[in-house]
Amino acid sequence: SIRTFAQRAPLPTSFPEASSEIINYWVTYWAKPTPVIFGQDQQSFDGNMREVSFPFDIFDKPLDPSVLDADAQWLKDHPTNHLFIEGYASAEGDPGYNLTLSKRRADWVRQELVSRGISESQILLATGWGHTYPVCAELDQECLSKNRLVRFVFSPR
Question: For the CA atoms of 116, 106, 1, 76, what is the dihedral angle to 10 degrees?
C-alpha cells in the first residue's frame, strides 16, 4: 500500500470570522440527533452503525477495528439497507491533502466492508469531505482527533 505523510503546519489560534460561523453551524448540526425521515429502517441503521475513527494522517488503520467489524456484521444482517460512506479529516495541513486523505478513508472502509461480505450494490457512494464539516470547532489535538472519521449515512435507495 502507498503511504502518504502530511506535514504538521502550525495551527492558527482561531478561525477567521466568516469561517467561524460556518464551522459553528456544522458543530451544532452534528450535535443534533439525525432526523428520522425514512422510518424504522433508518432509525435502526442510525442506532447501530458507528463511526470509524482514525489516527492523524492514516487512512487504512482505524483506532478501533472492532467498530468496523460490528458495522459489517450489522450490514450483513440487514442486506436491504443501503448507505453512503463519508470520510473526514481534521483541519491540520493543506485542505487539498485533507480531501484526498478523507476520500482514501472512505474508499478503504468501502473495500473493507466488501471484503467482509457486504454487497457492493449496498454501498451507493464513498466520498471524502476533508475538514469541510467538522464535529468539533476547537483547534486543540483532542478536538481535531474527533474530526478524523468515516461516518455512514442511510439511504432508502
Answer: 0
